[in-house]
Amino acid sequence: MKITSARFVASLTDVRQLPTDGLPEIALVGRSNVGKSSLINKLCGKKNLAFISSTPGKTQALNYFLINESFYIVDLPGYGYARVPEHVKAGWSKLIENYLSNREQIKLVLHIVDARHEPTELDKMMAGWLDYFKIPYVIVITKIDKIARSKITKQVDMIKNAFGKLKYCQDFIIFSAITGVGKNELLSIIEKYISS
Ligand code: GTP
Ligand code: MG
């Protein structure tokens, strides 16, 4: 699949405002600052489509991007950012939970983790949660450009092992928003799921 058009359509903080056109949705989840917005920009070949920041916790709403006029990529607020006040955190997780547990249009979730670190407890909880709700997902190991070539296999194995047994995980994909590695593989998987 080639992405020929991509545009931002809405930033929503209430599930009652979600699009009603029934188009398939690909949702992105992951720790704050892990690289969700950068991944969207790389996939779409547009530098400033999704807002990238060195300050974690920037994406605080469900950000909808319409791709090829035929499906949405939905950028979700990142979790696990310590410096956000508790009441704001609670609001975000409610929003994410409401969205993920009720939205039939979700065809696939991209669960983004950082290649440099062992998955956090929240990363594991998110996977467990997607399993519980029977939502198919792929685990995208991003920022792989930060890992020395000779250490990639070992690092990926460590991450897979740390997650343990997963039910609805379809695949692990290594990715870099800098080099573009993994982009074509991700696009193929997305294509498969939006047409299923
Ligand atoms: P929130 O919206 O705050 O949850 O963050 P996010 O997950 O959308 O992360 P974002 O894309 O804004 O990227 C966070 C930081 O990581 C930025 O400084 C990016 O430039 C950097 N970054 C993202 N992806 C990569 C990557 O693949 N490689 C490297 N080296 N840096 C990356
Ligand atoms: Mg973001």
Report on the structure:
The chain has 5 helices and 7 strands; from the N terminus they run E-E-H-E-E-H-E-H-E-H-E-H. A 7-stranded mixed sheet has the order 1-3-4-2-5-6-7, with helices on both faces. With 196 residues, the protein is α/β, with parallel strands linked by helices. The chain has helices at residues 36-44, 86-102, 121-132, 152-163, 183-194; strands spanning 6-12, 25-30, 62-67, 71-75, 106-114, 137-142, 169-174. The two termini are 14 Å apart. It has a single domain, classed as Rossmann fold, CATH 3.40.50.300. The model has no long low-confidence stretch (mean pLDDT 91). Magnesium ion is lined by residues 36-37, 58-59, 75. Magnesium ion binds at residues 36-37, 58-59, 75.
Produce the secondary structure layout.
Blueprint: E1 6-12, E2 25-30, H1 36-44, E3 62-67, E4 71-75, H2 86-102, E5 106-114, H3 121-132, E6 137-142, H4 152-163, E7 169-174, H5 183-194
Parallel strand pairs: 2-4, 2-5, 5-6, 6-7
Antiparallel strand pairs: 1-3, 3-4
The protein binds guanosine-5'-triphosphate and magnesium ion.
Guanosine-5'-triphosphate binds at residues 30, 32-38, 52-54, 56-59, 78, 142-143, 145-146, 176-178.
